[in-house]
Write a structure and sequence with these properties.
By secondary structure, this protein is mainly alpha-helical. Helices cover 86% and strands 0% of the residues.
């Protein structure tokens, strides 16, 4: 009896969890997300014409979605439109090399995912390459190697540019503006960084800002509504088990009393 009750309650818990997940996931957005991923995979495999077809299909379906439902803000529409156009342009131009085509499609893919994902967007997975790239910039600056510093800084700027549009979807505008300003300063005054220790501290500040950016997105990985379902259902299970245990204890006690009475 008790085992059946526990199984039933766990089934109810997963039903509620599934319902909660379904309510927060729009099938149409999921389909658009899949299209952007397929386009990226095609680009990685050098199948650029097929990637272009998928991006055009995305455009058609996205237009219908944005007209029918108020899913996006004006800023989100602008970011999505710009990155989509850039990806399509990169795939179309023969002068654009394979890496640039993939980078443009990756940028678009990350933006679409950021629009759909409420927790742990894909751009957070870029933390390791971005931070590793920036660490090499710092090492070159400390060693005073001008040529290596410029090469590593350009590599970092390229890595960051891939995730920057998706950051603008998830991060408050004022924080992104501050981050962009620091990066622009380091890029513009790159020669001064190696000559002035005061300017070198800008690298330390930027590193701290980048680490904070990624850490903040890790702090809240789970949907609060799902936690509520787990906690509330867990409470029901505990209460039910307590009740079943009490009924069992009461029944055994009554049996002993009847036995004692007969004796």
């Amino acid at each position: 009896m008790m085992r059946k009750v526990v199984i039933l309650l766990f089934a109810i818990m997963f039903c509620f969890a599934g319902k909660s997940f379904a309510q927060t996931s729009e099938p149409s957005l999921t389909h658009l997300n899949d299209l952007s991923d397929e386009a990226l995979q095609m680009a990685k495999n050098g199948r650029y014409e097929e990637a272009k077809i998928l991006l055009k299909q995305f455009s058609t379906e996205f237009t219908n979605l944005s007209l029918d439902d108020k899913y996006f803000t004006m800023d989100e529409l602008r970011i999505l439109t710009v990155t989509h156009n850039e990806a399509l342009k990169a795939l179309t131009k023969a002068s654009v090399d394979a890496d640039e085509k993939v980078d443009a499609c990756t940028t678009f893919r990350l933006v679409v995912d950021a629009l759909q994902s409420k927790y742990q967007p894909m751009w957070t997975e870029m933390e390791e390459p971005v931070m590793a790239s920036f660490a090499e910039v710092k090492q070159a600056a400390i060693s005073g190697d001008h040529a290596r510093y410029n090469i590593k800084l350009n590599t970092f700027l390229k890595e960051f540019s891939i995730i920057e549009p998706s950051l603008k979807v998830d991060i408050p505008a004022e924080k992104i503006q501050q981050l962009d300003a620091k990066i622009a300063f380091i890029d513009h005054y790159r020669a001064n960084i190696l000559q002035d220790r005061k300017d070198t501290r800008e690298l330390e500040t930027l590193q701290a800002n980048l680490e904070e950016l990624f850490d903040e997105m890790k702090e809240d990985e789970t949907d609060p509504s799902l936690w509520w379902v787990i906690i509330s259902t867990g409470s029901i299970i505990i209460l039910t088990l307590s009740y079943v245990g009490w009924r069992k204890y009461k029944g055994q006690k009554e049996e002993r009393q009847q036995k004692d009475h007969v004796d």
